[in-house]
Design brief:
The protein is α+β, with helices and mostly antiparallel strands and about 110 residues long. The chain has one domain (about 5-105): Sandwich (Hypothetical Protein Aq_1857, Chain: A), CATH 2.60.300.12. The protein has two helices and nine strands; from the N terminus they run E-H-E-E-E-E-H-E-E-E-E. The chain has helices at about 5-20, 65-75, and strands at about 5, 25-35, 40-45, 55-60, 60-65, 75-80, 90, 100, 105. The protein has a six-stranded mixed sheet. The chain is globular and about 35 Å long. The protein starts with a strand and ends with a strand. The model has no long low-confidence stretch (mean pLDDT about 85).
Length: about 110
Amino acid sequence: MIQITEAAAKKIQTLKTEDEMPNDSLLRVRVETGGCSGFSYKLDFDTKTGQEDKIFEYHNTKVVIDTKSMLYVLGMTLDYEGGLNGAGFVFNNPNAVKKCSCGSSFAV
């Protein structure tokens, strides 16, 4: 299971509207090899789900994760922060033993 903060859910909804995504679009969270720490997070909108996908809903926002990626993000909280030093999604992943300074890649 993963968690999504209210701030992240609001930003996801804003992005869906700005990108004119269909109402049934879900945010797909994936983990791919690469990045300076070994693995990186990938976020995309998707309207299709597979049989093995896990779907989570928080604050009226649905997120889908494939089974392979789920192994790396189990227990993670997806947040969104905005401020003077920049804005973006924040991945609070208890499985990450190391992460890069930008927070978009990690090691397990």
